[in-house]
């Protein structure tokens, strides 16, 4: 979509990477890139350059500062610099330069890339433009010439927002109601734009990513011809999601911050609805069940008239963790048996004070879809997420526990890091021994008994059998089976089928009463002793077949060859690098592909000694992650880019 006005519009570029750059002597340059344009008054405006990256194919994934008061005719060029001394700007020289493009041409290239990506099943706004090498500086030895890969973020003015909203509304009303493909594509785009508009530091961001990931995961199920007879029911539900988002944009929220919370609340309820829809799409005969039809219609009406009530829509930021603490304390008070299981190790992940939010959208979408959708985790119920030290894995665990708690999904957490949050990496590699596997087993069993309704009795039976006067000491595999696996099996077998709602006299279809997932998160596996890690991995691998199908095990650690080997050889396991890939790649991987790195190993130092940066630099954060929602001017003169929906 081009710019609709000649003034007041703003645009921002996301520089991703360059390809095939070489100095004249054949060595890799130390490259940075910036954009520039000339105003009507003849003044040249430049964006700050990116960080320097020494590579023939440098990667940045950085956002430029916003250009204001631009229009379709504004001519923009891109310049690549090369510097022998990265931090000294005076030492940099032009290495390559693009031709000048009008902003209208750049937006058209972006839209064409999106259209082509949708056709291929992996929509992306990124596109490539050729670069001209600086004369006498570079010898072109590559088969293809140098190019710059970037994307364009168009930030609408208030007038353009209103015009765009009116156009979308008119288009939607002119569509026939049975255009399911068009409606789902529109919703996917709305969720993408919404995700790009909300700062990563906002608590609602992960809930938007949750909804976007779940919808992307179930979208292929809409191609099933068996649902065509009931397409109106599904179409109206999907349409109601978009109606809700549009209501928030023009609703009662008096501040952008409050509006973002409404988006988070709406996306949370949308995610709960999508889980129900996924079960129906997997078994289309469910769409004939009168109770399920009634439930879907009720949800549709709620989204179409979503209440915007006074107060904080998302509640207290620590609400989930406070509820978890209350449940743990109640269990300890209930019986001395559970006091024995409550270890001295923290039951919750430490929320680190990182400079930026460490939860990249593709990773969040991939893990939440894996955990919450039955069609994903039934194939891969053990998942390993690896990343460099201090890249935000524990912070991600904290965020996942919060969002799972809001979805009603029980999550047990244990860390092998027996150190304070302020400990350095060097300190973390020596000193105190990590918790034992027996400590881990007891802590997980205790949390499951506290968080999973009806599981406490099975866990207490296992504790009594293990701690009696005549009981023989159990090794880790036997203890894990008795306190974790067996109680979960008993609970799954004895779970009663409940009515869809309390007013109904008969139960709905059994698939609608499938048990909620149970997620076990094991953090900091890199802190385990080698023998300890080997035993843990062996027991987890052998236990997959015995675990109920609703149980998911999520492991976090730095890159570890031992873990990679086990996961690669295990049919029920998968893996990914923190922040790698895209949502589409992640979803495909969970359906059977091997996620993560190729067979030759890990690039960029992920296998390096603990404490080295490794691939932490491959996790690229966009500019202005800390910017507030009002687009206030920052100290460097730039403005927040997150104004698409808020």
Automatic annotation (TrEMBL):
Domain annotation Nephrocystin 3-like N-terminal: ranges: 379-558
Keyword check for tRNA processing: no
Superkingdom of this protein's organism: Eukaryota
Compositional bias ranges of the Basic and acidic residues kind: 623-636
Compositional bias segments (type: Polar residues): 637-646
Keyword vocabulary terms for this entry: Repeat
Chain residue ranges for the region called Disordered: 607-646
UniProt-listed Pfam families: NPHP3_N
Alphabetical list of SUPFAM superfamilies matching this protein: P-loop containing nucleoside triphosphate hydrolases (SSF52540)
Keyword S-adenosyl-L-methionine among UniProt keywords: no
Protein name per UniProt: Nephrocystin 3-like N-terminal domain-containing protein
Organism for this UniProt entry: Ephemerocybe angulata
